[in-house]
Give the backbone structure.
Amino acid sequence: MRNAFDQSVAFEAIGRALGLTCPVEKCQAVADLYADKTADFSVRENPVDAPCVAGRPDRPQLVAPASLAKRRLGSEEGRAALIHAIAHIEFNAINLALDAAWRFRDMPAQFTRDWLSVAADEARHFQMLHGRLEALGYRYGDFPAHNGLWEMAVKTSHSCLARMALVPRVLEARGLDVTPGMIERLNEAGDGETVAILEVILEEEVRHVLIGSEWFRFCCQQQGVAPLPTFVELLREYFGWPRGPFNIDARLLAGFSPEELAILQEQAA
């Protein structure tokens, strides 16, 4: 039988992966964590009350979103810049999943396993995108990027409920809305290799957002609050209303209720 000390060691392994700066080492560490079925997360601990810090390489340079140049997908450089932007999102998503698994230790063991599974998917997505970047003659870090995803992680580090509402169900759900359009544009540009990668990512991101939706509702039940008004209140407090149009079918599969989607569409209009 494993004890609380064993569990702390398992959590610290997640923390070490979170702190790694080299993308190759981080992806390997995540794969090892997910493959280790012996780790015991069944004994609950207090959530980690520590600054929200994650390891990342020196590059890419982080800039304000408005500073990022608009590039056309008709050029190879333009397609590489788009792939780089998505790879940066996936790298941040690895850290987001690891931080959730490491930080919120008062949640059930399945919560930790769920977010380790998400981290493993995100690491694989990053590796696929980086391989495509290399095929085009570029590497991760060759273009500037913004840090919006991680900034929201910092803002919600005090609350699992807020994290589940605003990271998977707002920022990552945005990928469900915009990826079909990117796939269409890349098809028009004749980039079938990148399209194939994005189709895998789009399919698997539905499950990631669904995990966020399920644990958001768990946290609401745990705290005795209603999910719909709580979600609306958190949007108003932290983010504002997401822009449409929305991928309704994908969002329904990802755990959004028809009532939530109706409010989002109404506000976006």
Summary: The chain has one domain: 4-268. The chain has a mean pLDDT of 92. Residues 4-268 form a domain with the Ferritin fold (CATH 1.20.1260). Residues 149 and 160 are 16 Å apart (CA to CA).
